[in-house]
From TrEMBL:
SUPFAM superfamilies for the chain: Dimeric alpha+beta barrel
Region (Disordered): 1-21
Name of protein: EthD domain-containing protein
Listed Gene3D superfamilies: 3.30.70.100
Native organism: Frankia umida
Ranges for domain EthD: 130-200
Superkingdom of source: Bacteria
Amino acid sequence: MEKVVFVAHQPGDTPSPSPADVEQLNQRLLGELPAERYLGISLQLEDRATTDRWQRRTEPVARRFAATLSVWVEAGEDTADAAALVDEVWPDHVTGVVTEAVVRWNGPRQVSATQPLPGHTVTALLYRPPSLTHDQLVRHWIDVHQPMSLRIHPARNYVRNVVARVLPAAGKPASDDPFSDTTQFDAISDEYFASLEDILDPSRFYGSDVSQTTWQQNATTIGDDVGLFLDGTRMAAAIMDEYLLRDFRAPRTPGVS
């Protein structure tokens, strides 16, 4: 089984969808993506006001990281109907087949077209700097940054998604080096927090482990490490509401990965 992630952007002045719009989109996804092929479906939508508050934006942005649609299928190339739907709803998007690792899971998996998963998700698109290869970014993330994040941030859940291959847009040939395209992400991180204040309050966001350091020192440690393996000029992050529309996994007990 493969996980395919469509990453969508929108112009900054696009209105936020209403709850009725979200439910209509979710029902459309369930209706147009047959369960016998799309074994799992998850939709993340940016919480724009909260993202702007978190990132202290005071001016409008031209382009927003608006959504991700993740589908679990037997073969990543067998997603033409999902791609057609995404083309219609979010023309500005890129697609990758990812290797998913659920590193930590302490929350329920609640399947619903109307209610997002409890809590709040920080989703980040990760891009490597020119000095690193894709594999070097991944190795640093797994060996160095991920353990640091799990120790410092109060995330209930942590999901690592590494691009295994890129699915080109319709009518475009596959590239020999897809990561040379500045729109193509190398990986996606999903960190789930129980409380919005766990994200917005720096003393909580960086304060899970202050036994030997302060949260300010932890923030510096995280920031310095990010600069070692990510391209900060392209990295994008947003606070998301996530709707689990179809789940192929058996129900899990919180705290068990």
